[in-house]
Amino acid sequence: MKNTIYRYFFKEFISLFALILISISIVVWVVQAVNYLDLVTEDGHSFGVYFTFSFLNIPKVISRLIPFVFLVTLFFTILQFEKNNELLIFWTSGLNKIQFVNLAIIISILITLLQLILASTISPLSLSAGRSALKSSDIGLFSSLLKEKKFNDTVTDLTVFVETKKNNGEMLNIFLRDDTSSIDQSKTIIAKKGIIKKKNERNILVLYNGTIQTEKKNNKINFLHFDKTEINLSSFVTKTTTFPKFQERSSLSLLSCFSAFKNKLNLPKKYYMEEIRCKNKVELLIELNRRFGMPFYIPIISLIICYLLSSRKESKYFYLQKYIVFVAAFIILILAEIMIRYSGKSGFNSTIYYIFPPSLILLNYLNLIRIFKFENLAR
Length: 379
Hints:
The chain is of the alpha+beta class. It has 14 helices and 6 strands. Helix 12 runs antiparallel to helix 13.
């Protein structure tokens, strides 16, 4: 009988959990995707790269939302069971409240494992793949970045001025300054006409009737007149950050920054981060603590929500109690997020951050045992 009750509650919980998680994740992802439109409108990446990068951010969104969704789901599931008198059926069937608390803890452990896998493995791999997509893409929408009668410097080391743009893509009176050359100080191109064409899957800027002015290091300027010249735009990169951030690095890569782990892990060279990145220990610790510390606050939430079992809906304090319980659980999540921000500043802060969850879990579990120990099981 108890196994049937457990399966029924778990089924109801996981159905609501999946529904809320998917719904909120879609909303958050859409909002983020709108913000990422700058990749197209300002950085010139193609829509294919934009959708790929946006889609690969979904695991990160899900990972960040799991603790809050777990809180909301368990809270409303217990309230719904109480409203339908299903909890009363549980008690009269021989299931006591401590057993129900244990069930909530087991469910919270499963959700904790889910978030650990997402945060420590899947999300970094997905974000890294998204950054690689940006890094390997060329300037697919370069022509859309060029505004009439404005200096456009979206592309690194390249400034372009176009006086007139026609509907057929043709551009008139073009000024282009190229500072990418390692030999020459700068190169300035002035052309009467230009157009962007596709050639071997690459974007080529074709210029007509112009002059190339090359300024040498010895301050000499060379002039070269041309009827037609081509510039491979794939050799230029946008100002989009292509260097992987901490959240886009694998957990092994982050751990490799610590000498205590470096010798024990014995990882291939590709996992080791550059020394300049390892020096930023504050951000590195914050990211590691977010991945491996935040999931352990989920069992605390489950225990706090279980305080709803201490009062029946007929009680005049029940409605007040449910708000207090929800606010208390929500404050724990906020506190955990605040503690993450400070956990990277010292080893002591990190230690406190990891000691806090087991301490609260033990205290609340013992308190729930005290509250429910002498209750009538049929109540």
